Structure to design on (368 residues):
C-alpha cells in the first residue's frame, strides 16, 4: 500500500496554440518569446521534475494508466460533442468553447488526462493504493457536458466518478474543489443529484464571473448538496483553513461519503498570475492533511487528488510537493523558496476578521 502518482509525458504535449497570456497572437498582440497560454506544460512538468529530483518519487507508486474509453466519456458528454471534438482534433485543433484552444491530438490527450484520474480513483477504491494524485492535463473542472471552457475539454473528475459507479466501486462521493476558480462544470453535472456532494472554495467573481454564489445550493434531489464558498480577493492561509474547519469538514461529515475526490488547483497561490489569493504551499499541505483526516474518519482514507489549475512555474512544484509529502507521510521535503515572501504578505487582522465574518455568515446559513 502506498500513495500513487499518476503522470504521463504525453499530457505535457497538449498545446493551446499561439497566445500571449489569454489573448490570441495577431493584430496588435505581439507574439511571446516564451510561454503562451498560462495553461502550459511547464508548471506540471516542473512539479514532476521536482518530485524526481528530491527523491520523493521513489517513495510513490507510479502505475500506468490507459485513456478513458469512449463509453466512459459518453456517461458525461453527449456523442455530438465528442464527435465534434474528435473531428477538430483530427483536423489539427481549434477551439470548441470559451478559452479552450487545443492542437493536434487534443482529443486523445484529453482522454488520457481523464484516464489518469480514472485509474487513480480505481486503484484507491479497489484497495491497491492508500491514496493517489493524478497529474492530469488538460484540466477538467470547468467543462460542462456540452460546453468546454476555462482550458477544460473533458470533465476528468465526473468521467472517473461515473466509471467507478458503473463498476460498482462507489456510490456516495464528495468532491472538494480548492482551485481558485469556481468548479462550474462539476457543479452543473451534479447539481440535481443526491449521490454527489460538490464543494467549491474559490475567489469570488474570478472565473466564471457569473457563477459560484453561496446561494446556489443544488436543486431537486441534489438540494443542499452543492456548497460554494466564495472568498474575497486577498484571502490567505488563515482564511482558507477557517473555511475548511467551519464549512468544508462539517459538510463532509453530514454527507458521509464512500470516497473523497479533490480538484487540486494551485492557483490560489500568492504568486499566481490568474488568482488574487494569498495561499502558500503550507496552506495546500494543511488542507490536504485535514481532508486526509476526514477521509480516515468517514471512508477508510479513500482519497484522490487530481490536478486542475496553477500557473506559477516557480511555485506550483513546491505546492505540489507539499501535498505529496502529506499524502505519503514522507520525510523528504522541498523547502519552498517563496514561503517567506508569501508569509510576509498575509493579510492583517482587520481583513482576516472581515473574512471570518463572511465565513460565520455562511456557517449560520447552513445551520439554519
Amino acid at each position: 500500500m502506498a500513495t500513487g502518482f499518476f503522470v504521463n509525458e504525453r499530457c505535457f504535449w497538449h498545446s493551446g496554440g499561439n497566445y500571449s497570456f489569454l489573448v490570441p497572437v495577431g493584430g496588435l498582440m505581439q507574439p511571446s518569446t516564451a510561454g503562451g497560454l498560462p495553461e502550459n506544460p511547464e508548471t506540471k512538468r516542473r512539479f514532476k521534475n521536482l518530485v524526481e529530483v528530491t527523491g520523493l518519487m521513489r517513495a510513490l507508486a507510479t502505475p500506468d494508466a490507459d485513456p478513458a474509453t469512449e463509453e466512459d466519456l459518453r456517461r458525461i458528454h453527449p456523442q455530438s460533442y465528442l464527435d465534434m471534438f474528435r473531428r477538430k482534433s483530427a483536423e489539427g485543433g481549434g477551439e470548441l468553447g470559451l478559452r479552450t484552444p487545443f492542437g493536434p491530438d487534443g482529443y486523445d490527450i484529453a482522454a488520457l488526462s481523464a484516464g489518469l484520474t480514472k485509474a487513480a480513483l480505481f486503484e484507491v477504491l479497489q484497495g491497491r493504493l492508500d491514496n493517489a494524485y493524478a497529474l492530469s492535463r488538460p484540466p477538467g473542472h470547468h467543462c460542462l457536458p456540452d460546453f468546454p471552457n476555462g482550458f477544460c475539454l473533458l470533465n476528468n473528475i465526473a468521467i472517473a466518478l461515473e466509471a467507478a459507479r458503473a463498476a460498482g466501486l462507489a456510490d456516495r462521493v464528495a468532491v472538494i474543489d480548492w482551485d481558485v476558480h469556481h468548479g462550474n462544470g462539476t457543479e452543473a453535472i451534479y447539481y440535481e443529484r443526491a449521490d454527489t456532494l460538490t464543494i467549491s472554495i474559490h475567489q469570488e467573481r474570478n472565473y466564471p464571473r457569473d457563477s459560484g454564489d453561496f446561494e446556489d445550493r443544488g436543486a431537486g434531489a441534489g438540494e443542499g448538496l452543492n456548497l460554494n464558498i466564495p472568498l474575497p480577493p486577498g484571502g490567505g492561509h488563515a482564511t482558507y483553513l477557517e473555511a475548511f474547519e467551519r464549512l468544508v469538514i462539517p459538510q463532509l461529515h453530514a454527507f458521509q461519503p464512500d470516497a473523497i475526490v479533490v480538484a487540486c488547483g494551485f492557483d490560489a497561490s500568492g504568486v499566481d498570475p490568474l488568482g488574487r489569493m494569498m495561499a502558500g504551499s503550507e496552506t495546500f499541505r494543511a488542507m490536504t492533511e485535514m481532508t486526509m483526516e476526514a477521509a480516515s474518519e468517514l471512508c477508510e482514507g479513500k482519497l484522490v487528488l487530481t490536478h486542475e489549475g496553477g500557473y506559477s512555474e516557480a511555485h506550483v512544484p513546491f505546492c505540489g510537493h507539499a501535498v505529496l509529502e502529506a499524502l505519503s507521510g514522507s520525510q523528504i521535503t522541498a523547502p519552498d523558496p517563496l514561503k517567506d515572501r508569501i508569509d510576509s504578505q498575509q493579510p492583517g487582522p482587520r481583513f482576516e476578521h472581515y473574512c471570518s465574518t463572511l465565513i460565520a455568515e455562511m456557517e449560520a446559513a447552513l445551520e439554519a
Summary: The first strand starts at residue 3 and ends at 6. The chain is about 40% helix and 10% strand. The radius of gyration is 19 Å. The chain has a mean pLDDT of 96.
